[in-house]
Design goal:
By secondary structure, the protein is α+β, with helices and mostly antiparallel strands. About 30% of the residues lie in helices and about 20% in strands. The chain is built from 5 helices and 7 strands; from the N terminus they run ββαββαβααβαβ. A 4-stranded mixed beta sheet has the order 2-6-5-4. Strands 1-3-7 form a 3-stranded antiparallel beta sheet. β4, α2 and β5 form a beta-alpha-beta unit. α3 packs antiparallel against α4. The protein starts with a strand and ends with a strand. The model has no long low-confidence stretch (mean pLDDT about 90).
Length: about 170
């Protein structure tokens, strides 16, 4: 499978320590199989931080996402209640239940895949967390959004499976 990472630099080696915490699936290296999504992210990163949009291209071995030796959490392509709770917990700087299977702040999962929570979904999350809407309303609100996908790599063990095959500028 080909995966893309949109940014403003040619990444020569992945350093998980440079990845930001409190992202959808926790601190990790985020990729997508959707080239256009990666291009849009590269443009956004270059606009914010300067530089030129760059899409780093990676290959992962066939069947990697079914590898039983890795801890993989797959939310599928459609937002769900389980996905929403997981994303809210990972984005929450005050969430401390690291032992919970509903978060990856401790990088317990090697790889996590699922939809991306865009800014509109972040508003829905806040409304839910503030008691303004129910979990059912949150899920229904997410269902009508255009969703994208992401594959995040959280451990050195998982990063080793990403083989860089080039860049697109």
């Amino acid at each position: 499978m080909t995966l893309y990472h949109g940014t403003n630099i040619d990444i020569r080696s992945i350093d998980l320590a440079l990845c930001r915490p409190y992202k959808d699936f926790g601190r990790g290296f985020y990729t997508t199989e959707l080239l256009e999504q990666a291009r849009q992210m590269a443009k956004r990163v270059a606009r914010i931080y300067g530089g030129t949009p760059v899409v780093n291209v990676y290959e992962i071995p066939e069947g990697l996402l079914e590898d039983k030796k890795l801890r993989i959490k797959d939310f599928g392509k459609i937002p769900s209640e389980a996905w929403a709770i997981f994303v809210m917990n990972n984005r929450n700087r005050y969430f401390m239940d690291f032992g919970s299977e509903n978060c990856n702040l401790d990088c317990k999962y090697d790889i996590v895949s699922g939809p991306i929570a865009d800014d509109e979904m972040a508003v829905l999350f806040r409304q839910y967390q503030n008691g303004m809407i129910s979990l059912d309303s949150l899920t229904k609100g997410m269902t009508f959004k255009e969703v994208t996908s992401q594959y995040s790599f959280h451990t050195e063990k998982s990063i080793k499976f990403l083989k860089k095959v080039g860049i697109l500028v």
